[in-house]
Design goal:
The chain is mainly α. It has three domains: 82 residues, no CATH class; 66 residues, no CATH class; 90 residues, no CATH class. Helix content is 66%, strand content 0%.
Length: 256
């Protein structure tokens, strides 16, 4: 913002708030070396995107603050410059950032700004948000804004319980994973080379990972029976044949 503009703004504020302005923001916006003071830098940052007419509108709007003894801060004055519309939009967006998805939109302009630029609002520094929102209000196409969400719609009904066939599929999965966990353990012990080849060619690693991800456990009965190599071979026959058959059944019965 031009230094002459900020100097005139200070002069106006000193007239309107002869005691409180100086105590809050000092008598001059400049240091002895001619540079802006720290508080003036904040005002310069907040108002840098405004036109001279908008700043004049903000000064004129100070008449609405006659009941307030203290002058506005930079962000409050910026809201006066831009008008009530900007203030309402900014309030709605700040509320949405604070409350998350539970927020129910009431301001259509704010809702459309959020729909288009929510990522920017969520990732920008909070000090930059007012300027960002102001720019978006200026460029948004108001003729193509989408309507507010209808919060009167009934809640989504609870999904239906699984049908019998779905429950049966879940049981098939559990039995398959339980049996395969035993087979894979023993395959690794008895046929280490075949084990690696079979695992690589038959989705073995994916199935084991799926087993782990689902949290399935080996039934106690199977745990007891797998200790004996002889029992293992009678339970599963040929390791390769049993493994590939189990995979085929799994794909046919469950993944279809």
């Amino acid at each position: 913002m031009d230094k002459n503009v900020i100097n005139r703004l200070w002069a106006v504020m000193l007239i309107k708030f002869p005691t409180t302005w100086e105590s809050a923001f000092f008598k001059s916006p400049f240091k002895p070396d001619g540079n802006l003071t720290n508080v003036a830098i904040e005002w310069d940052f907040q108002l840098s995107g405004l036109t001279t007419d908008e700043i004049k509108s903000g000064i004129d709007a100070l008449v609405t603050r006659t009941e307030k003894r203290f002058p506005p801060n930079a962000m409050e004055f910026k809201a006066l410059c831009i008008g009530e519309e900007w203030e309402n939009v900014a309030d709605a967006i700040f509320d949405r950032l604070h409350t998350g998805n539970s927020y129910e939109w009431e301001n259509q302009l704010a809702f459309n700004c959020w729909a288009k630029w929510s990522f920017e609002y969520q990732t920008s520094d909070k000090n930059h948000l007012p300027k960002l929102i102001q720019r978006h209000i200026r460029i948004i196409d108001r003729d193509s804004m989408i309507p507010l969400p209808d919060y009167t719609q009934p809640a989504i009904e609870k999904p239906p319980e699984p049908t019998k066939s779905e429950r049966e599929k879940q049981e098939i999965k559990k039995r398959f994973f339980a049996a395969m966990s035993v087979a894979l353990v023993n395959m690794g012990k008895l046929y280490p080379e075949k084990f690696v080849r079979l695992m690589n060619c038959g989705r073995g690693w994916e199935i084991v990972q799926d087993f782990i991800n689902r949290g399935y456990k080996i039934p106690d009965k199977v745990k007891k029976d797998e200790h004996s190599t002889e029992v293992f071979q009678t339970m599963f026959g040929s390791v390769k044949r049993t493994y590939l058959k189990a995979v085929t059944n799994y794909l046919a019965e469950v993944m279809a």
